[in-house]
Fold Carboxylesterase.
Amino acid sequence: MIGVIAKLLGGPLVSLAGDIAARVAPNKDALAAQGHGETMTTLQGYAAEFTATRPNRTWWDSFVDGLNRLPRPFMAFGVLAVMAWAPLDPIGFAEAMRVYALVPEWLTGLLGGVAAFYFAARHLEKRLDAKSVAPAEVAQVMADVAALKAMGAPTPPPEAASMGDGDFRFAMSSPEPMPDGAIAEWNRRRKAGRH
């Protein structure tokens, strides 16, 4: 009985199912071979581009080719440097960013368009609204920068109160570390010429 079922299923039904499966599901080996062929063709094109020698190539051509490869790495490393600058020097970073706020929007758009050109992803809009900076805004930014500089300035230590002669002699003869008041008194006496 099993032999009869195997003959029925093993013959035309199996080949029919195989034909249907081949039409519905693609052959993965054939797709992989085709993808590999396309990849190799692309890589060979890149290799030909960079290994081809041009006739009459001068040192100037090599120099300009080298310069043309610099903007993208410089921009990428510049962005990383700005990200590192913020925690290393927060006051300086805040000052610079506050001053960058004065850059007009149209110029920011233009610089952004140039950077996007090098990364081959964006284009500049045809019309940008020009906005001038008001003098009051410049004055406010300058005040903000002055306030930021004041925040970063070191504050002098508070002036210690003067000590009486007995307290000073006791502090000087004690084996314990001298308090701030005794050190300040010693400095005052040294400047005055009386130890």
In short: The chain has three domains: 2-52, 71-152, 159-195.
